[in-house]
Amino acid sequence: MMSQRVLLVVTNVGHYDAGPSHPTGLWLSELTHAYDLFAARGFEQTIVSPAGGACPLEPRSLTFPNYDRSARAWHADPARMALLDHTASPDQIDSAEYDAIYFTGGHAVMFDFPGSDGLQRITREIFEAGGMVGAVCHGYCGLLDTKLSDGSYLVAGRRITGFSWREEVLAGVAKLVPYNVEARMKKRGAHYSKALLPFVSNVVVDGRLVTGQNPGSAKATAAKVAALL
Fold first, then answer.
1. N or C: the chain end with fewer CB closer than 10 Å?
2. Hey, what domains does the chain have and what are their CATH numbers?
């Protein structure tokens, strides 16, 4: 029996539009929890980004309490860090080789995930072939503009969650982010929901679409994707 194959998506963006003095990037633990869990299941994994090449890290993800055991182990491993220096580009990916695509987060993804035609193509092809689509935290920005072959938005009419506007405000970045992704998801016809309290774990499953609300949802989101695979 062949092992399951998962495509993990990370960002190439290193700062907000306000400039380099406002750095952002991948929220490391949102990648590492998924990678660790999938590896433990024997899944094959590939990391892709909108432009290919290097993926910067969100500085706040390297501080307590976000910098947990999983993130620290990855950050201290040169081989693992090299994976983030040399990510694949969408045009190098054959969607037929993957059973799932999993979008990681960090505010940086708001800038480069939605506009990637390559990521949209891969997501559509995996989903329409019966594969899984997962996203954690801001990762759901990668689903904003993805349309199916019939022209409808993938998220339209589907239950979904992701980083809420309330959490943006509480995180102190509401004036830095380029848009309100929660509001945009609703305009796409998605049935968005969030946990009663901010920053607590919350995962929503709608068939082959699995989304987690925030960094605290990283483990649970990956676990649900793995279980469904």
1. N
2. 5-228 (3.40.50.880)
